[in-house]
Every structure is written in C-alpha cells, then in structure tokens.
Structure prediction request, 572 residues.
Amino acid sequence: MVQEITITTPRHNNQVIDIGDGFIMRWSTAADTENIADLVGDAFRYSSFSATPEGEIPGPFEPLMCCVRRLLSGNSLAMSEYDYAMVENTRAAAGENPIVACAALHEIPSFYGSVKMIFGKPEQIACASAYRNRGLVRRLMFDMIHPESERRGHLIQYMPGIDYFYRLFGYEFALSSPDGSELSNLDDNIPKLNEGEQERYILRPATVADIPYLVKLSADKRCLFTHKTEVGSIYDHRYWHYFVHGIYQPPHISWYDQSRVVTILHDTLEKRDIGFNQHVYMNGLGWQKFALEHGIAMRNVIYPVLRQMVALAQDQAKACHAYEMNKKKNKAKKDDENTKQKKEQEEEKEKEEEEEKAPEISSIALELPLEHPALEFLSSKFDPRPDVPDAMLYARINDYSAFLTKVSPALEERLARSPHFAGISATLRLHFFRKVEGMNASGLEIVFENGLFVHARPWKKPTREQEGAEKQAKAKAAAAAAAAAQKEKDDGEGENKEKQQEQPSTATTTAATTVFGAQFYPLVFSQLLLGCKSVRELIWSNIDNQTDDNESRLFLETLFPKVEHDIDLLIW
Prediction:
C-alpha cells in the first residue's frame, strides 16, 4: 500500500522571484485566500459549468471560488495553504486585487500498473483579463510549478485544460477520463417502484465509520470494476475521509461545498452493506463511482441505486436553486434599499414560481469506468454517443528515463506474461526527431536482460554518416577477426589447440541481445507510455510514427499496451 501523503508545511522555502515592474512571484499563505478566490471566480465566470441564461453576463464562478477556499484551508486533500504559486502586483491601487495570476500544485496518490507513485497536478490556473498575454502563466509554470513538482519527485504532471494552450508548456493529451455516455429520459428508462413497494436496497449517507469499508472495496479492482485500469488515482483512507468528512468542515460556507455525495448501499433484508455509490451534482448529475461486493447481481441493485441517486440529486438541485435565488435577492436588496419593502412583497408572490423553476434531473452523465457492468447493463438505453473521444487530459513527462525506471517493475511483469518476449534480452531504441519543451532528450534507449530492466537513458540517433562509419568499422573488425582465425588455422598449431581444448573455458555466456527500434513525433510517446493509444493508432494518426519492423511493433505493444484510465479530476 502506498504511504499516505501528509501535506502540512511548505516545501519550497517561501520562494519569491522578482520579475520586474513591481511584479513578484511567490507562494501563497492562508491570508491570500480571498484574493485568489476572487481572481479564480472572475477568470472562470464563463466556465462551461456555468448555467447563466443566454444574454446575461455571468457573475464570478462561485463553485471554483469555494474550491479555492477549501484548497487554502490547510485541510485540503491535495495541497497545503502554501502551494498556490502567484504573481502579485506590489503596486496595486487601493481596492484592487494584487493577485493577477495563479496556479496551484496538487499531489495525487496514483498508480501505473503495480507501481504506486505521486502524480503532480497543476490546477486552478487563472490570470486576470487585464494582465493576459504577458507570459505570466508561462513564468508560473516554468519557474515555480514545474521545478517544485520535480523537486518533490513527481515524474509526471497532468491536468484538464483549455484547448492547445498547455502544449506550449510541454503537455500532450495522453490520459483520458470516461465522459461521453449519457442516460436521459429517466422516467422511461428507470422503472418506478410498484405502489406500496419499498426498496430492499437503500442508499444511506457514508460516515467516518464507513471509511475502512470504502477503502477495502475501492482497493479491489473487481469490486470497483476497474479490471483493465492500469493508470489511475488511489482511493485510500485520506481520500475517503476527505469526501465523507473533510469537505463538510470549515470553511463550509456555500452550498457548492457539498456537491459530491458518498453513500453506502445497504441490503435491508440481509441487514448488511454490499457496496457504495458516489455522485456529484454541478448543474447536472454525474455518476462517478459504483462498487459492489463479490456475488451481488447488478440487475438486482442497479435500478434501486438509480432511483435513489436521482432523488438525492433532485434535492441537491432544489437546494442549489434556492441558494442562487437567495443570493440574487440579497444582491437586489443591497442594490436598492429604497425599494426593500416592495421587493419583499414581490418575493412572496414569486416564491412558488421560483420553486417550480428548480431544474429537474432529466439525465445522468456516466463517468464510470468503461468496463463497469452498469454501463453494459444500461447500454441499450444510452443516448447515441457523440463521435468524439472521451474527455482527454494533458500529461507531461519531462524525463522519460526517470519515469521508466520508476515503473520498471510493471514493465517486467508485462514481459513475464508475454508469450513472445518472456525472459528476453533486448535493447529498444526510440527516436523522437528533436528535443522539445516537455522532454529532456531527442531519443531514448531501454535495455532489458533476461526479462529484467537494466536501464533507460537518453539516446541520440546517429546520422547516416555516423551509421555508415559504424558499419564500416564493424565490417573491418569482422574482416580482421576472420583473417586472424584463418591465420591461426593455417599455422597448424595443433599442440596448442589440444591444450586449449583440455582446459575449461573461461568465456562467459550471455543471452543474445535483440535490437528493436521505432520513431515517434515529439511528445507522442507519452500517449503510448501511458496506454492512451496503441502503436497502430499512432502510426495511422501520423506517418512520422513508425517501427523498424513488425517484431519491434509487437515488443512495444507488449511493454506499453493500450489500457483504461481511472482519473479522479475533482480532488478539491
């Protein structure tokens, strides 16, 4: 089991960088909370999660402002209050927000195959509109976030992010988050209970006492239905304690602090717990996790779970609506105190109408692992899936050699299971054309001996002239060896030969080494390394991607098969 992370103190020695014109970059303290929250709320006011009516200018995006407050509370699952990198305008006028750009650094317990490791995650990146196009986010990423992440030993960083932008910082879309299927027409697709019938299987709120049960089930891939998942988040004690208990602690000041709900599935007939469920309501219902103990039939429990989950989300929708309506009322009162009495009278008349306006839960976004049997069971009821890939996440692996060394036990296990390459001694040489941002070398050499990892190190493909010279040197050496052997034979040193045959040989026998090769467009190897795409898919997507031969392709697919990912995006 991975050692749990305790994030309580700053790890970057209160670094401050003067970047000129009155601007400095520094790390946060709890005192910066409201300024960062205001910046993030303003920067994301046009977020795709917002439900602002068409034609209206949206206000600051409160859900992310709440996230900032939790992240900087000192009790966050992902970071300490000292882990927001910021650009501060030291010449800001009175009343002006001095924080003009920011980026948080999260630490996420994760796994690659059988190897447990920590993934770095830049998050909540924002820049005030008046200060954009000055390279401030670039400075934060290159001078603070990436160096600090690497200093902590993070061999990979990942994030969701706006289209293309983070490619400028060495990121490539190489991880996925299941997102694409949707179940709508819920009245037709979810059978109702018969009159007088009661649910046998009920969802009850999870408590701190349930955490060991949640850890046990989520650690079992068969219970969580993540059989094919080879890269993902670890759901350990800290994770569940946070989402069962931590998010409800101060600063719990907004409805949006309770959007994620964890429930235990209880069998009232057998009087025992048989699984858990997790959903989130954020202007819509997202079904995130559904785990069952072994031997529980999906067909028996899925509709009770869906009925109750939708009912819980509907209560959340009403509470969220009431919260937003109350905010509008309070704002209206502050805007015009002279019409206070009139507004109160109007509020009474509109109360029933406002309650009716609360959004109905009409669909469920299915964010479960792709191999989850619930998806298979409901597949005939899905809306047509859009002809686009699942939600893609950026990933940055600046040092492939270090990453491969860390995950080498998983690579050895894959070779050992292979009917083609078990016990192989081989050298794999990969050419990436040129060194670019996000990778520290233009090529890579990976060596295995008798099926065991020896090393991974930067490698530079020789030029054609160098290859020609090398072939010439080898040919000359071979010719010289042949001539020497012929001379020895011609000399007829029989007596010496006889003595040599009588003596035991001192030569060591080594396994024959096979050399495999391939080339990939810069950064594209990350997609193969993380199992996002197969070798064939990469070749078909770009003819620059090639393997030396079919055996090289097969060797690559053995080491780096296409796999499923299980990434929790909202560890806020």
Summary: DSSP finds 17 helices and 21 strands in the chain. The two ends are 23 Å apart (CA to CA). The longest helix spans residues 298-335.
